[in-house]
Amino acid sequence: MKDVIIIGGGPAGLTAAIYAARSGKSVLLFEGKSFGGQISKSHKVENYPGFEEISGYELSMKLKGQAELFGTEIISHKVKAVAEKEGIFTVTADKDYEARAVIFALGTEPKKSGIPDEDKLIGRGLSYCATCDGNFFRGREVAVIGGGNTAVQDALYLSDICKKVYLVHRRDSFRAEKNLVEKAQEKENIEFVMNSVLLSAEASPVIKSITVENKESGEKTEIPVNGLFLAIGQTPLTAEFSDLLPLDSYGYVQAGEDCKVRDGVYVCGDCRQKDIRQLTTATADGTVAATKAVEYLDS
């Protein structure tokens, strides 16, 4: 029997492990894929306090090592199910494990565009986070794919540091808020490419251009860019636990800033319903979730 089981080994889950273990609790953490989550794929991280520059993988390994240093037991296995009975949680992975509290740090995954070799282009010019990686393309030409608030905000952010930004959207109007679209229209270095879908990206070895197709005319156009930012949405990895977690219409866990779902159940990181999803907000969530779990266990 463990005090706390944490599901997810991204920045939020690993931070929760550090805080729970430092509080003297027995902690078991599961990660079914790669430690660090999406940030582990970032070639360079420059916006995490305390590090002028560090790779996402190195930062992830530091967090993992710190969690283990304080006594966290880590198992590289996907959690298949979680059941609750009389205040005890049974977590099924390679076998059944029990705990008195559980922290869900499930994370999200970016929606893919479906272009050829998309996964191979990550780190070679393709990114799902403009605020994370935009500075690497300072003074260069980039493209943003999407039509919601995130896409337009990304284009505005990039327009301040990049030479030119192509904003590609598959419809003739944006879903983004009107004021954001108006701000983008005022930017001389943002070019709108409407009614168009992304077909492919040419890389050798880094991205040199993208090809888009106009949905009305069928015309294909090659656009020379160095960076490609996909802002077509995120998918929270929560569906398997919908029987235990209250989800909103988008699949995010409904929990406030205390990260509490109910006694013994906590959530942290990008899978939680909130406005800002950054590396720092993920670790902050991990801190809060673990602290609240410890308070519950001590009570």
Task: Describe the fold and architecture.
- The protein has helices spanning 11-22, 56-69, 118-121, 130-133, 149-159, 178-186, 279-298; strands at 2-7, 27-30, 73-75, 81-85, 88-92, 96-104, 108-110, 126-127, 141-145, 164-168, 190-193, 196-203, 207-214, 220-224, 227-230, 234-236, 260-262, 265-267.
- It has 299 residues and is α/β, with parallel strands linked by helices.
- The protein folds into two domains: 2-109 and 234-298, FAD/NAD(P)-binding domain (3-Layer(bba) Sandwich), CATH 3.50.50.60; 112-230, 3-Layer(bba) Sandwich (FAD/NAD(P)-binding domain).
- The strands form four sheets. Strands 1, 2, 3, 4, 5, 6, 17 and 18 form an eight-stranded mixed sheet that branches.
- Strand 2, helix 2 (56-69) and strand 3 form a beta-alpha-beta unit.
- The protein is elongated, with a radius of gyration of 21 Å.
- The chain starts with a strand and ends with a helix.
- The mean pLDDT is 95.
Question: Which key phrases capture this entry?
Answer:
FAD/NAD(P)-binding domain; 299 residues; 18 strands; 8-stranded mixed β-sheet; alpha/beta
Draw up the topology in text.
Blueprint: E1 2-7, H1 11-22, E2 27-30, H2 56-69, E3 73-75, E4 81-85, E5 88-92, E6 96-104, E7 108-110, H3 118-121, E8 126-127, H4 130-133, E9 141-145, H5 149-159, E10 164-168, H6 178-186, E11 190-193, E12 196-203, E13 207-214, E14 220-224, E15 227-230, E16 234-236, E17 260-262, E18 265-267, H7 279-298
Parallel strand pairs: 1-2, 1-6, 2-3, 6-18, 8-15, 9-10, 9-15, 10-11
Antiparallel strand pairs: 4-5, 5-6, 7-16, 12-13, 13-14, 17-18
